[in-house]
Amino acid sequence: MQERRIQEDWIMSAVEHPDKTEEREADETHYLKKIPGAGGKILRVIVNPSVSPARVVTMFFDRRVQP
After folding, report:
1. How far apart, in whole angstroms, are the C-alpha atoms of residue 35 and residue 33?
2. How far apart are CA 4 and CA 11, in angstroms?
3. pLDDT surpasses 90 at 1
4. Which of 35, 24, 30, 36 lies closest to 59 in space, CA to CA?
5. d(CA 32, CA 60)
6. Would you call the peptide bond into 53 cis, given omega within 30 degrees of 0 as the criterion?
7. What is the pLDDT at residue 67?
8. What is the SS3 assignment for 63?
9. Section 61-65 average pLDDT
10. What is the pLDDT of residues 10-59, one digit of tens each?
11. Quick count: other Cβ atoms within 10 Å of Cβ 41?
């Protein structure tokens, strides 16, 4: 998070109130959220929901997705 300059509240917002959700694999859900505080970039948060508690695998600003 620190290395990529991603704030924890942005991650929580993406997971709790995503603009879009993608089911990629049985153990992978992608949450996408436009983050105004980051210049409108799209944050992608990848979560493994098959473990308890659900685990964030990674997060990054996805340049492939247009805001």
Report:
1. 6
2. 12
3. no
4. 30
5. 10
6. yes
7. 66
8. coil
9. 92
10. 999 999 999 999 998 778 999 999 999 999 999 999 999 999 999 999 99
11. 19
How far from the centroid of its chain's Cα atoms is residue 5's Cα?
13
Rounded Cα–Cα distance for residues 61 and 50 (Å): 24
Is 17 strand, coil or helix? Answer: coil
What is the C-alpha to C-alpha distance for residues 28 and 57, in angstroms, rounded to an integer?
9
The Cα–Cα gap between 13 and 64 comes to 20
Q: Is the dihedral of CA 64, 65, 66, 67 positive or negative?
A: negative
Q: Which two tokens stand for residue 13?
A: 């917002």
The reported pLDDT for the residue numbered 2 is 81
